[in-house]
UniProtKB/TrEMBL annotation:
Domain of life: Bacteria
InterPro entries assigned: DUF1214, DUF1214_C_sf, UCP009471
Gene3D superfamilies: Domain of unknown function DUF1214, C-terminal domain (2.60.120.600)
Source organism per UniProt: Methylobacterium thuringiense
Pfam families documented for this protein: DUF1214
UniProtKB keywords: Membrane, Transmembrane, Transmembrane helix
Stretches with biased composition (Polar residues): 8-20
Identification of the protein by name: DUF1214 domain-containing protein
Statement: the UniProt record of this protein carries the keyword Transmembrane helix: yes
Residue ranges crossing the lipid bilayer per the database entry: 47-66
Domain DUF1214: 113-211
Region described as Disordered: 1-23
Length: 235
């Protein structure tokens, strides 16, 4: 076989091999494997990113829910009121610290005083801005105290800011040293505390300063705290 014959035979053999269906299938399988691996890696990466984004979203939502209202843990319920003796202590739980940071408040430390909050009346019904209440009776012994009311959410900037609370030095009392504070949308005579917004839940906060009950919350009972009585609600 001369050179010309070998060249012609070799070229024919190469063309035949290149056009072999089996060769095409092998190449297609290799390309498919590469593409499949790429798609699997891309799908896995996308799933991881989706899981991270979902976890971050749920974490932010749960943190917002846990710190939007009052303290979620560590309270002692006495009737309609809940005492929070450890929110200002060095070992306060992380949620209490987060609530304080979100509110921008400095909590009362142990020995300085005691915070009590109420989100329901004496009948266990949620305090509503559309209702009227009478808060009164007695307050545990303390050098001074304040009673404030607030609602969830930011206040309306277009609305004139009215009184948000009373102190023990300015509240009007009866001859037996008892007092009654009217909480409602409509102006009342005497001690009147306006609702912070037209509708929605509200919360009362009673702060006792330099009080002996701060060291022993167990000494409190319903008869030593102000009563919260619903008078009526607007339709």
């Amino acid at each position: 076989m001369n050179a010309f014959t070998r060249i012609m035979t070799g070229s024919t053999s190469e063309r035949t091999s290149a056009s072999d269906p089996k060769s095409f299938r092998e190449r297609g399988a290799r390309i498919g494997g590469v593409l499949g691996g790429f798609l699997r890696r891309t799908s896995r990466t996308g799933f991881v990113l989706y899981a991270l984004a979902l976890g971050a979203l749920l974490g932010l939502a749960s943190a917002d829910f846990a710190t939007r209202g009052g303290y979620p843990f560590g309270g002692t319920t006495i009737g309609a009121w809940t005492a929070w003796p450890r929110t200002g202590s060095a070992d306060a739980d992380p949620y209490s610290r987060a609530v304080n940071s979100r509110r921008g408040e400095i909590p009362l430390a142990i020995g300085e005083g005691l915070l009590l909050t109420a989100a329901v009346d004496d009948s266990g019904r949620t305090l509503e801005a559309g209702c009227s209440y009478a808060i009164g009776g007695v307050v545990p012994p303390a050098r001074a105290w304040t009673l404030t009311i607030a609602g969830r959410g930011a206040a309306d900037p277009a609305k004139t800011r009215l009184r948000e609370g009373f102190t023990s030095t300015e509240v009007l009392r009866s001859t037996d040293d008892r007092f009654v504070i009217a909480v409602s949308q409509d102006v009342q005579s005497g001690n009147w505390l306006p609702m912070p917004r037209p509708r929605g839940p509200v919360r009362l906060a009673l702060r006792l300063y330099d009080t002996p009950v701060a060291a022993s919350v167990g000494s409190l009972d319903r008869n030593t705290l102000p009563a919260i009585t619903r008078l009526g609600c607007s339709r």
